[in-house]
Amino acid sequence: MSKLEPETLSLLPVTWSAIERSAVAWRRVYLFVAFSMGFSWIIGTVVYVTGGIGPDSPELFAGIRLWNALLVIYMFGPAIGNVLTRVVTDEGWRGLYLRPHLRRNWQWWLLAWVGLPLLIYLGGGLFFALFPAFFDPTLSSVNELLHRTGQSGEIPFQPEQFVLIQTISALTIATAINCVATFGEEFGWRAYLVPKLLPLGNRQAVLLSGVIWGVWHWPLILMGHNYPDTPLLGSVGMVYFTTVVGVLLAWVALRGESVWPAVIGHAAINANTGLAVLFQQGDPSRLLGPMVIGVVGSLPLAVLALWLLVRSDSFG
């Protein structure tokens, strides 16, 4: 079968097989990347000139600083890139991948919501097994936090109870709330960029999109986000991390035939990534762990991503 031009493709029923038969619409890819990075990097510049990421950023209310609010806006750059590219190129509004298809693909929603956090917990456990000096079984940092926030020296929860509450919250309400922000990314990366790159082949598409996603983070990383002590190496570490996670989020999106499993999976990762710190003592390098952004912390995710890349039928 001959390759279809992108204009012809836009007239067809939108399916992954139809996308795979088309040629890469490079103009649309370039415009999308330019719009996405341009918008987000402008917001990143605003973060930088208003105090950066940290205590120099103006406080808005109740401990929420300006950079926290701007970060949410930053995350909507890819979604804006999707919309602007469609408008500028007259692409139209087909293939948005907003239909949930929940009834026939519910298992991908569940895998994204619960399966990915389980791998994050496994990665944290692996880090502490390899570096036991950083493991604090007494939860002393949690205990200190509870005493600091309690009244008259009394604490509302025992440290173990607090960890359990935080875990339940991360798996439920925190994931749901995070979906608002992660939609801003996933509506661009997994709902637009990955489908546009699929004619390169599944592996090439998900890997290239993951690298682009990592570079998009660079202004934040260079200001100390995620890797405050090693921003330059952290920029490389972020590309590694987004490439790994990008494979998994593309997997659940393509198999689930919708952007929503990726939105949920991304939100679940964000909501659960800090739980390992509750068991931490000392100051390990974030490039290693115990959070999932570290090489060791992300190792279970990386193993799954590699397995998916090796399998020829992983992405549908």
UniProtKB/TrEMBL annotation:
<protein>
    <submittedName>
        <fullName>CPBP family intramembrane metalloprotease</fullName>
    </submittedName>
</protein>
<keyword id="KW-0482">Metalloprotease</keyword>
<keyword id="KW-0378">Hydrolase</keyword>
<dbReference type="GO" id="GO:0004175">
    <property type="term" value="F:endopeptidase activity"/>
</dbReference>
<feature type="transmembrane region" description="Helical">
    <location>
        <begin position="69"/>
        <end position="89"/>
    </location>
</feature>
<feature type="transmembrane region" description="Helical">
    <location>
        <begin position="231"/>
        <end position="252"/>
    </location>
</feature>
<dbReference type="Pfam" id="PF02517">
    <property type="entry name" value="Rce1-like"/>
</dbReference>
<dbReference type="GO" id="GO:0008237">
    <property type="term" value="F:metallopeptidase activity"/>
</dbReference>
<feature type="transmembrane region" description="Helical">
    <location>
        <begin position="259"/>
        <end position="279"/>
    </location>
</feature>
<dbReference type="InterPro" id="IPR003675">
    <property type="entry name" value="Rce1/LyrA-like_dom"/>
</dbReference>
<feature type="domain" description="CAAX prenyl protease 2/Lysostaphin resistance protein A-like">
    <location>
        <begin position="171"/>
        <end position="271"/>
    </location>
</feature>
<dbReference type="GO" id="GO:0080120">
    <property type="term" value="P:CAAX-box protein maturation"/>
</dbReference>
<feature type="transmembrane region" description="Helical">
    <location>
        <begin position="162"/>
        <end position="184"/>
    </location>
</feature>
<keyword id="KW-0812">Transmembrane</keyword>
<keyword id="KW-0472">Membrane</keyword>
<feature type="transmembrane region" description="Helical">
    <location>
        <begin position="29"/>
        <end position="49"/>
    </location>
</feature>
<dbReference type="InterPro" id="IPR042150">
    <property type="entry name" value="MmRce1-like"/>
</dbReference>
<keyword id="KW-0645">Protease</keyword>
<feature type="transmembrane region" description="Helical">
    <location>
        <begin position="291"/>
        <end position="310"/>
    </location>
</feature>
<feature type="transmembrane region" description="Helical">
    <location>
        <begin position="110"/>
        <end position="135"/>
    </location>
</feature>
<keyword id="KW-1133">Transmembrane helix</keyword>
<feature type="transmembrane region" description="Helical">
    <location>
        <begin position="205"/>
        <end position="225"/>
    </location>
</feature>
